[in-house]
Amino acid sequence: MHLLTPILLLLLLRSAEPRRGPRSGTVERGAGGRVRGRGRAGVMRRQTQECKEYMEAGEKYLDCQDRQLTTVMQDWPKDIHHLLLARNKIQVLRDNMFSQFTQLKSLDLQQNDISMVEDGAFSGLSQLTTLLLQHNGLKTATEEVLLPMPRLVYLRLYDNPWSCHCQLDSLVRTLQVPSNRNLGNYGKCAEPQSLRGQKLRKLNVESLCAKDQQVEGRPGGREGGQPPPIKVKTEATSMCHTYMFPKPLLDCSNKDLNDMPSDLPSDIVKMDLSWNTIKHLRPKQFLLSKDLKMLNLSGNSLQHIDTGAFAGLLYLRELDLSNNSLHYFQYGVLEDLYFLRKLSLENNPWICDYNIHYLIYWLKHHPGVFYTGLICSEPQEFRGWRVEDYVKTYNGECPMDKQTGEMDTGQGGQGGTDNEALELLADMGDRQGERLPRPLKEKKPNRFEIIRLS
Fold it and tell me: Which residues form the signal peptide (predicted)?
């Protein structure tokens, strides 16, 4: 018993020792510090892992958009073909920044904070064909930047505050080479004031430096008696965002546009103009958007769509006109949409009168178009009806003998045409079968007609 008591005391003292104040506190703080250190490393690893790597059409994509990145990570895969770095926090493109990605074909750097590009930033990118630098803070660059990319075909430079002085001379000359027709198409001068708004590709390069000297001492002055250009319409390249992957998309949603923007890019496949205040579509506003397949105009205040508004949209597949103020379509509005497959018409105040017939007629002759939301809003007696049901009953109240009598004379009801009469006959035949008046069935055309010549 005397031996067991000291042994038990020793065991109790050892079990209580880690809980002693100062020493145990130090251990905990140290452990906590190491945990926090591991956390920072873990954040960096997770940030890299968050980049989405995927294959499409046999090519490898690395999607690192919206990751708050300030540089390129060295542990990214080297065999990628497309690198998406839009909407990050990159400020400077350093020499050899992308040199490890020797197979890269496209590089998306739009919507960062890039204000400087060193001459060797794109070294090693001999296979690059697409470079997106729009929506940044670039003021100047030289042709040296483009030399490592001999296969470059598409270069986007717009919505950068380009300073059109002597330092920009070599870059402008490169952009203006005739074979470089897709390089820097929409880039524009932000300064000096006399050149503000002029496209880089249209500048007079020979006098660029001379004009630079003339501007000194003339703040806001005019060169050669030429006033600064006045921007009349909102331009898509300055207001909207362009994404090239996975398909070219022009995003102009929620931009407070009250009219269609000008300068619409011609190579866009999807266009989002939703949730603006556009009220009127005029003829040929999409004429250059020949590759457009999806057009979203929902959530505007559309009241009028002119005939020819969709001219040029030969390959359009989806059209969203929901949540607008449309009452009907003028005759011919939809005639340019040969390959349309989906038409969204919800939440429009459709008026069910004679003007709505064109839309139903067009849909009837384009059975491959899936449409939704065609409900009568006015007049009160037809509110809530499907528009196609209203059209079917348009002649429902006319007496049967009056209808058949008018059709016997070859005239449609109330100023209609022969085609309308035939369509009415077909509808009546579908609904009534053998109840059609017998004289119409038994009447036989005359085989001979005697013409007396005087």
Answer: 1-18
